[in-house]
């Protein structure tokens, strides 16, 4: 397993977290009940911070997640909180859960089938979800499924223990019903499923609780969160730099009605640090860019009614040797001849390639064409474009984003940047960098072209491809937040505002 770079905060999936727990208990001699006690202490603090008063209901399952819940209930009762404990387990509790149930002072747990339990949940200020832990995968059944539905129907705030029940901690997949939490108190490190949709949409605010696991646990993670430290890897211009040594990006695309896309990709590349950008667009529409972009060189390619034709390939070929990266696809359109043009250019270009929009659509059903490329390839699809590449429905992609992004990365031999609030940067070898997102200003037309130009600029400046893709994603998200700040709201920000914000956020 390839190690994550320093600018990635490691996330542990369910098997890795189990291995860490086992190491702490068996190799370092930390009693499992001590780990459970610290976990409960952390969750109790989260509850107190979220709602310092009002009734609390703790709903426990049969496993160690339920044991954590019993600790939470005990500590809150000792702090004089009004706490009702509900038990959804119809089977034998785990040994540690049983031990902490026996330590619980006050009233014994209510069975969830008891009408009093449902009433208590309905009137709770906070409900603690301690039903299912990181080991869960699949669909919840029986009493647990009923508990999830009852909690989700209640008006109180929900704090989930380690992971919202019903969410796959490793992938974010939700196969059945799942808790929607206001906060998730997760232990030791966060889990991938808390940061990948649809799980991310159920996790709420994530608090990582230190439960006393020492440093030096065995094993490595191949999934992590992108940190701002990735911006420290960005190249800087020196006194002797020239426009060519600063990176030359070739943007190829455009068609009738879609000329804004190559324009935005070109300008974003310049704002992200490229020293020279050439836009290759339909000759009949070239003047649009000449008027819009004074700093961008343009080349007119053979077209028919604004659609690029394969006859334009020789002109592009002449420019490839002088460029550091090719951004192919913004505004290309889906004319059959434009598809032929895009496929041929992507296959023969011997420089770094960012493939976006209709450049991606041109490769639907033929991802294997890209595997013969020797230079780095970065694909930047949204869910619909990734679905077309795999010939599946976009809803299937959204259900299992990580699995489908990995499949495309493997089939194409390319880095996949699956866009979204949880943008995933996926290598064919398996490493994954996840964006924290939280940049709603990016939910507007044209911001995908901005990301294409940004990543292309970083590749043209010589950055390692995985770092370039992740840094481009981080810059893009930060620029979206900065654009929203400048405009006064995310709703009022446009793609052009995101481009304008790029220089200000390029250094952390």
Plain-language structure description:
The protein has 508 residues and is α/β, with parallel strands linked by helices. It folds into two domains: 10-222, YjeF N-terminal domain (Rossmann fold, 3-Layer(aba) Sandwich), CATH 3.40.50.10260; 228-233 and 244-505, UDP-N-acetylmuramoyl-L-alanine:D-glutamate ligase. The protein is built from 18 helices and 20 strands. The protein has an eleven-stranded mixed beta sheet, sandwiched between helices. Helix 8 (260-271) runs parallel beside helix 18 (495-505), helix 13 crosses helix 15 and helix 16 packs across helix 17. It is elongated. The model has no long low-confidence stretch (mean pLDDT 96).
Topology:
Elements: E1 8-11, H1 14-26, H2 32-50, E2 56-60, H3 64-78, E3 83-87, H4 95-102, E4 110-111, H5 115-123, E5 126-130, H6 142-153, E6 157-161, E7 183-187, H7 200-203, E8 205-209, E9 223-226, E10 248-252, H8 260-271, E11 276-282, H9 286-292, E12 297-301, E13 303-304, E14 307-308, H10 313-320, E15 325-328, H11 336-348, E16 352-355, H12 357-361, E17 377-379, H13 383-390, H14 394-399, H15 401-412, E18 415-418, E19 424-426, E20 432-434, H16 447-460, H17 465-487, H18 495-505
Parallel strand pairs: 2-3, 2-5, 3-4, 5-6, 6-7, 7-8, 9-20, 10-11, 10-15, 11-12, 15-16, 16-17, 17-18
Antiparallel strand pairs: 1-9, 13-14, 18-19, 19-20
Helix pairs in contact: 2-3, 3-4, 8-16, 8-18, 13-15, 16-17, 17-18
